[in-house]
Amino acid sequence: MNMKTLLYSALFIIIKSATGQKSPNAPLDCPSLEKGDIYTQSEFLSRLANECRYDRLLLPTYKTGEVVYVHASAYVYFIQPAEAHDLNFKLHFLLQLRWTDARLAYSLYSPERQKIIGESDLRQRIWVPHLYMSNEQSSSLMGTDSKDVLISIAPDGEVLFSRRMQAVLYCWMNLQKFPFDDQRCSMNLESWKYNASILRLMWEKDNPVRLSSELHLTEYSLLDYWTNESVVRGDIVNMRQGGGRSGNYSALKFTFKLGREVGYYLMDYFIPSMMIVAMSWVTFWLQADASAPRITLGTSTMLSFITLASSQAKTLPKVSYIKASEIWFLGCIGFIFSALVEFAFVNTIWRRKKVVSLKKVNSKYILKSTLTPRLARKELQKEMQSSPQLSKSRSCSSLHQDASSDPNGPGYNNYLTVHSFPSALNLPTITTQSYDDLTGGRGRPGSEGSDEPKHTWTQMTPQEIATWIDKRSRVLFPLLFILFNIIYWTFVYCL
Prior knowledge:
With 495 residues, the chain is an alpha+beta fold. Helix content is 33%, strand content 24%. It has helices at residues 3-19, 41-48, 120-123, 263-280, 291-313, 324-350, 363-386, 388-393, 435-439, 462-494; strands at residues 68-81, 88-100, 116-118, 131-133, 136-138, 149-153, 158-170, 182-191, 199-203, 209-211, 220-234, 247-260, 356-358, 415-419, 429-433, 458-460. Strands 1, 2, 3, 5, 6, 7, 9 and 10 form an 8-stranded mixed beta sheet that branches. Strands 4-8-12-11 form a 4-stranded antiparallel beta sheet, with no helix packed on it. The longest helix has 33 residues, at 462-494.
């Protein structure tokens, strides 16, 4: 080292000594707290929370090892449940945390000072519990900005931390009874760094959660709310707490029950769908051969209802279970589709040409006359194909005379009976028996000793049958729809 370097080093030491600067390794001198009332709040706080006597990274009870009790309370300004497919809600509230830090007690040093109040600058100087919301989507809890932050320190060292927050929290909804559902959503506060053996979270005993008098909900109504305290298990596998450390961590939960307002859905979905279903019944007043207007009306009501239902279903998540709104959708679609099927049925009957003879004019014989004959023939063919012996001995009444040509009226016909003889002869014998022989002389009009009631046969044209079915549908469909409504609304409100 040359002479010039030595001179510069000596000059630097002299200047440093003259200015009063100390080396980094020199011990810190703690400023005195005596006569604290003569200092301003900032000056006194800088002395009280000086690094020489206060470490903000350590708990208030790090020397004694006692549990730090943090009391919490909340004041809710605003609750906004989001759309059902988002499965979350927005919450505006004021969170207050209260604990005691004996290191900040200043009653002996500044007896005239009532309270120390600060914002984010004070928060940077003292220890604050590290909490988080386990079901948060986004929030500003314990942020570093100075907006809406207030901290006060009492003379005995009691710290009150207050902050207004806006948080979006997840709410796992059950939509089986949508839109007649009740949802339970919660705000979960948990300790992030310290386990329950060191830090314990507790709700305030008096009014832990208060609601603003101006709190109003649109889609929901607030039915009830409650609070509870619990302990959650943290482990390395799920890394629930910071660093994935295992142990029990203290937690707080604020739960509120929301009931969905159904007025919107009644006016925009249920009542319009009822009107659309009723519109599909107009086809019953149109003639059965009016294919164009009846098909147009049926398909238009079907498409209108599907459009109405799809617009409301877009706001719901795609879940695996069936919802109450989907049951209503299937029921209304079934009634509209049944009206189309009824038109196809009566239109097919209308185009028939043969007159139908009926024993009585009621639903049993009319439907039997339109459906049974063809089905009976098919069953007979199947039986004859499966059993050849049965086809030889079956009696058939194929000689059916028209009522206009038989002077004795319908029903008095001759019957052919085929008798099976032994296979050696191999020739069947056909005999003719009259109706009187078969019935023992009973049933002829005016015959004596008749003990069976007389039956009067009626003839109906296919057009009359189609009109008869349309008239009955005008009453049957509304009655069935009313029954469906009774069952549906009993289910959604009573179960």
